[in-house]
C-alpha cells in the first residue's frame, strides 16, 4: 500500500478537490460520514482505499470503521475563505485538515502575497499527515495558477516538498486562466478574471518547471467547449464551473484508478513519470471521450466497413472495436483536448490511456494498433511509440454526495488520455505574451512590490519562461535525419 496526500490550495483548488473526494466516496460506497455503505466490499478493495483514506481516531459507531481523506484544504484570501468553508462537507473530513486564514490584506490576489507569506502552520499540518503514512508515494496538489493562493502558496509548497521529500512524486493538477479576452459564450469566464492573472501564471511557471514531477494542465476555455458539446446537457443548459470541474475530476480519478482498484492491466502513476523524456518536459495534457460523445458527433458518419480499412483482414470488425477506434482517435484530437492547443503543430513524446468499463484486452490492443498505423498521433521517430494502458472495471456508484447531475453522464465505457506533447508550448506562449504586455508598461507591479517581488525578480521569471518555450521549440523543430541504407 502506497499513500497519496492531496493538498487543495485556493478557491479553485478547493472546488476541484471537494468534487474529487465526493467522487471517491461514491465509487467506494462511502457515505457522507465515511462509513461503509455496503457490506460487499472485499478486503482487497478496502486495503487499496487506504492509499487515499486513513482510519480515523474515533469512529461514529463501535462496530464500524470510519475512513477519512488524507488531505488538506488551504485558503488564505479573505474574500474566498467563507465560500470555501461552505462548499466542503466538513463531516466527511478531519476538522484539522481545514486551514482557512482570513488575511484581510490579501484581496489583491497576487503571487507575491502567497509566495512570501508566513506558512508555518500549513507546513506543520502537512508533516503530521506524512507521519501517519506507512509508505508515502507522493503528493497531489490542486490549484489554479491564476489566483494568489493557487500560484504563490502552491509554488512555495512545491519548493518545500522538493527539499523535504525529494524522492516523493509531486503531481500538480493546475488550472490555467484564459489568456485572451473573450465575448459571447465565454463572457462569464472572462468576467471572473483577475487583472493580474497573467503575472501570477507567469511567476508560478518557474516552480512548476523546477520542482513538480508531473503537471497536468487544464484550460478554462477548452473545458467549457467540451462541456458544451456534451450530449448530457439538459435543455441546452449553459455549462457552469461545476461541470467544468467534473472534467478535471474525471482525469484525477483516472490517474488514481491504479491505486484504488485492482487491475492486472494497469498504468501506475510511476509509469507516467517514467515516460517523461526530459525533466523539464513534464507538462501533460489530457482528454476524455465516451460512446455518448461519438454517437452525438454528427461529423463522424463512418460505417463499420469504412473503419475496417484501418485494420488487417484477419481482424473481425465489431461495434465495440469500432467504438474503441473512434474514441482513441478522438482523444488525440483538438476538440477533446482540455487545453487550447493545436496538436497538429506538435509531436507526442509519450502517452497513457486509461479505459474504464467492460473492455476486452484484445479489443483495446487491436484498436491502439490501428490508430498508430493511421499516423494520426505524430510521435517523434526517435521515441518509443508504446502506449501505457490501464483497464479498469466500471464500478457502480451511489448517488449520495452528488449535488448536481454530471455533465459526463454515467457511461458504461470511457477513455481518458494523458499525453506529453510539445503542443503545450502554445499555452506557455499565451502566458508569456500577456505578461509581457503588462510588464512592458509596468502595470500593477506595485501590488507585487509591496510583498517583496522586485522588478528584477519579474525579469528573471519571464526569462525562465522564455527559456522553457525555447526548449520546446527546439525539440519540436528538430529535423530527423533519414538513416543511411
UniProtKB/TrEMBL annotation:
Pfam families with a match to the protein in the record: Tubulin, Tubulin_C
Any one GO biological process: microtubule-based process
SUPFAM superfamilies per record: Tubulin C-terminal domain-like, Tubulin nucleotide-binding domain-like
InterPro entries: Beta-tubulin_BS, Tub_FtsZ_C, Tubulin, Tubulin/FtsZ-like_C, Tubulin/FtsZ_2-layer-sand-dom, Tubulin/FtsZ_GTPase_sf, Tubulin_C, Tubulin_CS
GO cellular component: microtubule
KW Electron transport (keyword) present: no
Residues in Tubulin/FtsZ GTPase domain copies: 64-263
Superkingdom of the source species: Eukaryota
Keywords, alphabetical: GTP-binding, Magnesium, Microtubule, Nucleotide-binding
One annotated GO molecular function: GTP binding
Purpose: Tubulin is the major constituent of microtubules, a cylinder consisting of laterally associated linear protofilaments composed of alpha- and beta-tubulin heterodimers. Microtubules grow by the addition of GTP-tubulin dimers to the microtubule end, where a stabilizing cap forms. Below the cap, tubulin dimers are in GDP-bound state, owing to GTPase activity of alpha-tubulin.
Family, per entry: Belongs to the tubulin family.
Name the UniProt record assigns to this protein: Tubulin/FtsZ GTPase domain-containing protein
Amino acid at each position: 500500500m502506497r499513500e497519496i496526500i492531496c493538498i487543495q490550495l485556493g478557491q479553485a483548488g478547493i472546488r476541484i478537490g471537494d468534487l474529487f473526494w465526493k467522487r471517491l466516496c461514491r465509487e467506494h460506497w462511502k457515505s457522507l460520514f465515511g462509513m461503509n455503505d455496503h457490506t460487499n466490499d472485499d478486503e482487497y478493495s478496502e486495503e487499496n482505499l487506504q492509499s487515499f483514506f486513513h482510519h480515523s481516531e474515533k469512529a461514529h459507531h463501535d462496530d464500524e470503521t470510519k475512513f477519512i481523506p488524507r488531505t488538506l484544504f488551504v485558503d488564505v484570501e479573505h474574500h474566498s475563505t467563507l465560500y470555501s468553508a461552505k462548499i466542503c462537507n466538513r463531516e466527511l473530513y478531519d476538522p484539522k485538515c481545514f486551514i482557512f486564514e482570513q488575511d484581510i490584506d490579501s484581496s489583491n490576489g497576487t503571487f507575491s502575497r502567497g509566495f512570501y507569506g508566513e506558512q508555518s502552520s500549513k507546513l506543520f499540518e502537512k508533516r503530521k499527515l506524512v507521519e501517519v503514512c506507512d509508505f508515502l508515494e507522493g503528493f497531489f496538489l490542486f490549484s489554479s495558477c491564476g489566483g494568489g493562493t493557487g500560484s504563490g502558496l502552491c509554488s512555495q509548497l512545491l519548493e518545500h516538498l522538493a527539499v523535504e521529500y525529494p524522492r516523493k512524486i509531486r503531481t500538480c493538477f493546475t488550472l490555467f486562466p484564459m489568456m485572451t479576452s473573450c465575448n459571447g459564450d465565454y463572457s462569464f469566464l472572462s468576467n471572473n478574471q483577475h487583472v493580474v492573472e497573467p503575472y501570477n501564471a507567469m511567476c508560478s511557471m518557474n516552480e512548476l518547471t523546477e520542482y513538480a514531477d508531473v503537471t497536468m494542465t487544464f484550460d478554462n476555455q477548452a473545458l467549457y467547449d467540451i462541456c458544451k458539446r456534451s450530449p448530457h446537457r439538459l435543455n441546452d443548459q449553459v455549462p457552469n464551473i461545476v461541470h467544468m470541474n467534473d472534467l478535471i475530476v474525471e482525469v484525477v480519478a483516472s490517474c488514481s484508478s491504479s491505486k484504488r482498484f485492482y487491475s492486472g492491466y494497469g498504468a501506475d502513476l510511476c509509469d507516467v513519470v517514467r515516460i517523461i523524456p526530459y525533466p523539464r518536459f513534464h507538462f501533460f495534457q489530457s482528454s476524455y471521450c465516451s460512446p455518448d460523445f461519438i454517437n452525438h458527433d454528427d461529423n463522424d458518419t463512418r460505417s463499420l466497413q469504412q473503419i475496417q480499412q484501418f485494420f488487417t483482414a484477419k481482424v473481425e470488425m465489431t461495434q465495440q472495436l469500432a467504438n474503441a477506434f473512434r474514441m482513441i482517435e478522438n482523444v488525440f484530437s483538438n476538440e477533446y483536448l482540455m487545453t487550447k492547443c493545436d496538436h497538429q503543430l506538435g509531436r507526442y513524446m509519450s502517452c497513457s490511456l486509461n479505459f474504464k468499463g467492460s473492455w476486452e484486452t484484445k479489443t483495446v490492443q487491436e484498436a491502439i494498433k490501428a490508430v498508430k498505423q493511421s499516423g494520426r498521433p505524430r510521435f517523434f521517430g526517435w521515441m518509443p511509440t508504446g502506449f501505457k494502458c490501464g483497464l479498469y472495471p466500471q464500478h457502480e456508484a451511489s448517488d449520495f454526495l452528488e449535488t448536481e447531475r454530471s455533465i459526463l453522464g454515467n457511461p458504461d465505457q470511457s477513455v481518458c488520455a494523458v499525453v506529453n506533447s510539445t503542443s503545450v508550448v502554445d499555452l506557455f506562449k499565451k502566458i508569456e505574451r500577456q505578461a509581457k504586455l503588462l510588464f512592458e508598461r509596468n502595470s500593477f507591479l506595485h501590488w507585487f512590490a509591496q510583498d517583496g517581488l522586485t522588478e528584477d525578480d519579474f525579469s528573471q521569471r519571464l526569462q525562465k519562461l522564455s527559456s522553457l518555450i525555447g526548449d520546446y521549440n527546439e525539440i519540436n523543430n528538430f529535423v530527423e535525419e533519414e538513416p543511411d541504407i
